[in-house]
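Entry 14. Structure prediction run on the chain below.
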Amino acid sequence: MNRTILLAIFMMMGMAMQAQGIRVNYKGATPTIADFVTTYLSQEDDEEMIKGIWEDWESRQQGKALSNGASFTVDVKNGFIRYDKRYTANTYSYTEFCFWNCKDGKHKLLGVNRGCIEQGKPVTAQFTGLKFYTYDNQTKRMTQTLNTELGAGIHVRPEVTYALPQAGKDIMATIHAQQEVQILMKWNGAKFDQEQLGRPAGNVQVSAPAHTGSFGENIKYKDDDYIRVYTAEQFLNALGSNRNVLVAKNTEINLTPILNDQSRFRTRYKMWMPDASSGVAGGRETVVSEEVFDGRQLTLVNMKQLLIEGEQNSRIVVDPRYAFCLRFVDCSQCTVSNLTIGHTEGGYCQGGVIGVTRGWRNMVINSDLYGCGTYGLELEGTNSFSLYSSNIHDCTYGIMQLRNCEAVHSTHCDFFNNREYALIESQGCVGTVFEDCRFFANWGDAALFSFDREFILMGCAVYHPTQNLGTMNLCDQPGAKNFFSENPLDKNIQSREIGPDGHYVNARGE
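Output returned:
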């Protein structure tokens, strides 16, 4: 019998077996995830991938040592098993198994997810991906079911990785493209409903070279994760939810010329308007050129998970003395990192460095905020704001102003050379904490703290006249002991490495 006929016979036998289903043997009332895994590994015809897992699974069942770099996570209670095989620190493969009960009470669904990571990045191979088997409680057999029949089909060319749930019922799919997108696949008892958690991949325009072209072009990437920008045009075009914007090394971006040009704000996601305080109708993310007393300011509305980060010696400045350098309205989980931000000339009455209105879990880290018309930070109605390892200095009114905020936490920060009213003013705020912060060289005749509710100091150094400390009767001092000195200009105050760190480290640590 020739080879072609033999191949045809084996193919027909495989099709017949698939149609009939794979018998699941088990003890007890119902099969467990361990029973499904044993059945799958013993019947799967992809020997190249399965052989090693099957041998390690048998070894585990017999109490023997696994092969080099192999490990199992077995959670029978939650119906989840994962096998990892590590080859180097950044290269490994994994296989996940999970099963769901169907709401018809007659079936179960087994999911098998295979993945491969090379040098820390996902790769697509013949054996990678997600597939399913439907188990019939009556026949005790399982047959493969197409992803599309279950609402789990994702048709894209880039790499897609999945994470099966050890707890809960939903699958997380991640599309690895120029802009990473996550899709939550929610199990409803019969199939999966897909909910996109990020902006669709491919929405970011990329062109070259870096320093020529019109507005909306010339975005260049650092790896696949960052949009590196060199000009104000590139910076404004790059802004959006679920994006990482990197201001290039030795780059100063002055936003004022483009903010003052109304012709630059006629595209879909940009608005030219007098006031954005109330947000933008419909919850749409928007980049706004907002009018102030002596010019215009940049206001970002309804942004989520936006990172604005700087490389070595990068800064953002504005000319109007009464404008915020960056203002966030109804934004969540946005971060400003490793940047120097300030005004070319200080003013009075209004115009801080960074302003945040409403939103939650926004943060400023490793940054230098300076030279504003009022305060380095002005926060209103926001929740869970963090300031970490940053400086606020040379602001004409004071350090920060807080209104009706919750959980504002400043950690390892220096506040200096600020004047002239209450330096930290807070009204209607709860959960305000300063930890490992220093206050020095500020306007000595100004009250340092002006709070109407309790706040916390932990491990801070306060160089300020005692009579002008302000509302210390509302200060709780738990944990690490605070240090107080009468002299704002104490010569023993030494510089410490706070603010922009002078370098950028990517995901690979380079």
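Confidence is low (pLDDT under 50) at residues 1-19, 198-224, 502-510.
Filed with the rest of this week's runs.
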